[in-house]
Amino acid sequence: MKENPKAIDRMKYKFSGRGKIWAFTVIGNRDHAPEGFQNQVPYAVAIIELDEGPKISSMLTDLEWHYNEGIKKPNIEIDDEVEMVTRKLRVLDDEERGLIVYGYKFRPAGLK
User: Which residue ranges does the record assign to the ChsH2 C-terminal OB-fold domain (predicted)?
Assistant: First the structure.
């Protein structure tokens, strides 16, 4: 495979894991959740603008929730500061005996 001479050189870069919520939505209906995530409803997914500039998508975790007009909503807002943490994403195959998949999520900054 030929390299593209116009491509930007790639280099390893470690991000701080901190950023702010740029946009978010709530998956509140099991029918709208992807396969393997239905049992986590409701949950929030956000576009995070990292402190270094790039934007990434991630599930949010460790949120406080409230009801507004009968709808469960997270206590988060655009521009809230968040930090990356490792959490369980899902269980493959059998929910009781399947392989647990871990990955990154973001939570409100400053939680212990």
Answer: 15-87
